[in-house]
Structure formats: structure tokens, C-alpha cells
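Re: the 489-residue chain
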Amino acid sequence: MQRRLVLGCGSAARAAIDRIAEWPGELTVVSQRGEVVEEMADNGADTDRRAPDEASALPDGEMDVVFAASDNVETNAKAAEQARDQYPDACLVVYLPIDTDAEMRERLDRVADRLVDVEGVLVDRVSELTVSPGAERLHRLFDELRGIDGRLAVVMHDNPDPDAIASALALARIAGVVGTPADACYFGEISHQENQALVNLLELDVVELADGVIDDYGGVALVDHSRPGVNDGLPPDTEVDIVVDHHPPRGPVDADFVDLRHDIGATSTLLADYLRRIGLDPGQSLATALLFGIRVDTDDFAREVSVADFEAAAWLLPRVDLSVLDRVESPSMTAEVLETLSRAISDRDVRGDVLLSNVGAIRDRDALAQAADHLLNMDGIHIAVVYGFRDGTVYVSGRARGTDVDLGETLRDALDAIGSAGGHADMAGAQISLGILSEADDNSEEAVEAVVTDVISGRVFETLEDATTLMDVDDTQTGWASEFPFEEW
């Protein structure tokens, strides 16, 4: 059991002492302030009302942690030196008031394990809030939010995933700080079981948009995507005020405020950084959503993860409802997903370590992604692409693992000319209007399905083969063999 000793109780250190009192173990507080001694005694601490720099104030026995916390630096120095002599193995922390001179800092640095430098913390905090790149970005965002005339629509991409949902809610919360009302909005539906569980269990306030409703808003922000009309229900010529995203854009991004950082694993990381910088507690529900968004988009910190993603997760974790997070991550699989997975397995086209499957007409778009996730676990498969059509649109979902091929770029090269595509190196998707593909005289579902298979599989396999051929040339020059035996096709 840890034993802790607090020597003195300065006003600036009081909040820290209150937190220390909540930790498990034994706490002893030595202070001349009667009200502090009484309050700490009421909270279960051992107390001694006397000067903290008296040698007789130090309890017998060993101490694990000693905190010299008086507002008087000379008192702290004397108390710390005596504590170091009596508890040589303890972790000794000393509080430095703002007026501490260089000589005293040097004296205390020789005896303490850690100095709590209030002046240094204040300088660093002011610098972080005023002159760092993150601070400049945040100030521009606040200026843009203040300039919104009316309510702000924070628009996610269609069929939003946890990263998009959490990011939209966080940006709406930040907009409220500057007095701009905002809604986290989406077109389409939230159909994936995990995403539904996230919204329902955390009681997240998201708004489903219908055609034309966007006209009721005074401004538009895009999160987790960067271009209107590309994977969202907005008209392509929509004027956008704010864009926050971590995906590399395929085309120009036009907005008054743009924060695009593709070296970050999740858009939720960017929003968590905003919240942390302005000192805004996200609350348990939003913190849980943001952490889940980071975990999903980084595949539990195994894909395209950055230092910033880990830092954001560490900041969020103490605020998260872990029991709800467990329930969100373990939803039941619907019959629609099972049916789609069955069709994807039975109709799969495997060439080398690449699997493509057309599951035909679908009711649930998210079933494609879940099917691709499961198919990627098949023996010998490194790339799995599953696609199907609904309401005049072909939807494509792909996953990759253990390959040098960038799946996002592959789908862009293969399908951008006839639709829109993009994503990450190991997780990507696309949408294509069925009208472009359904030119067969026979408009039966079987005929349409055959045309879709010819076009989608043909383009994707051809693009992968071209990319691998180029890799083969490079590998021959460098002595490496290709991982993709396309000659077996």
C-alpha cells in the first residue's frame, strides 16, 4: 500500500492535494492551516498541524511519495531537504511558486525528483494557446465559427462511421463555445450494428437530413471527408465554410477553414486535440465516441497510427465509459449481414491473394464492409473487395492486409472515372451510379448483376495487375520477388 506525505498546503497546490487525497493508500498532511487540517482529517487523512519545515513534522517509517507544497519556496526547500534525508527512496516532488529565483531552482533541482514549475507551466500553456501551429489553427477555426450567420450544419459523409459521428458531435460542441448553434448531420442512414449501438447506447444527438433541408442552415462544415457531393447528399456546388479531415483529398478542397492532416489516423484525433487545447471537457458520452472513432479508424492502433492518435486516446481514456464501449464493440450480427457474407463467400472470385465478390442487390450498405472484414481472414487472402447495388447505386467496400498495394489509390485509379472512390491503404470504398453500367438490353437483376461484375471486377483486377507489374519490374531491379502471383489468374 502506497504511503504519501504532503508538507504544506499552498493555495496554488490545493487542487493537486485534493486529487492526491482520492488515491488509494495512506495520506498524511502536515500544515499550519487549521481549516486544511480539519478538512483533510474529515476526508480520512492523517493530519498534523505544525510547520511543514520542522524536522519533527516528518512521520516515522518509510514514504513512497513526498510533496512539498507550501506557497513559500524557502519552506519548501527546507522541508524537501529534510524529507530527502529521512526518506531517501521516496519520490520527492516540490512545488515552485512563481517568484522562485534561479539560485533556489538550482538548489531544489539537486534534491527533488520532480519540480512542479507553475511559471513554466503557465508559459508553456500560453505558448500553446497563442503561438504554436495548433493554436493558430484553433484561432482561425474560432474566427470562422463566429462568422457563421445562423445555425451550422456539421455534415458527416453518407452512412457515417464512428470517426465521422464523433467528429461531427465534437465540432458542434466547439461551435457552441463561441455561441454558434450547430447540428451533427448526415444523409442516408446509420445501419452498421456498431454505429447504431454507438448512437443508441450513448444517446448521441445526430440529425438525419433530407434533400433541401441544408438550405435552412447558415453554414456548412464537413468532417471526415472534404468535398461536397462526394459521398454525401450535398449538391456538389455547396459553399463550405469548414473542412476537418484526415483523408488525402482526390481533388481541390474549397473552404474558408481547412484542416487536412493525412498523417493522423483519425479525424476524431484532430477534434480531441481542439477540445484539449481549449480546456473543454467533452463529457463521458462524447469522449467515449471519440475514443471509439480513433480505435476503429486505426484498427486498434495498428493501422496508420500517429503519436497524436496515442496522445488523444490517453487524454480521452479517463473520461470514457468503458462498460458502454464494450457493449458498442460487441453488437449482434444481423441476418442481413449473415446473408451478404454468405453470398460473398459463395460468389467469390479469387485470383492469387486477391478476392472480389459481387453480392448483387443489398438492403444494408454496411453489410459490405463487414463481409469484407470477414473475407480478409480467409487463408491466403490479402485483399478483399465486396460490392453490391441498391437504389441505383453500386457500393464497393475493400480491405487489405499484409500487402504493398495501396487499396485506396487502387480503387481511385480503377473506379474514379465512373464514380467516386477513395480511402486508406488498407480500407477503402467507392460508389458508382448504376445508370452508367446498366446498358444491357436485358434489365433483369441477373443481367444487371453480370454487367456490374464485368465492370467492377474487370477494372479492379486490371488496375491491381498493372500496379503489380510495375512492382515486379522494380522488385526485379532490387532483388525482391512480388507477393502477388497474378500469373496464376
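Confidence is low (pLDDT under 50) at residues 470-489.
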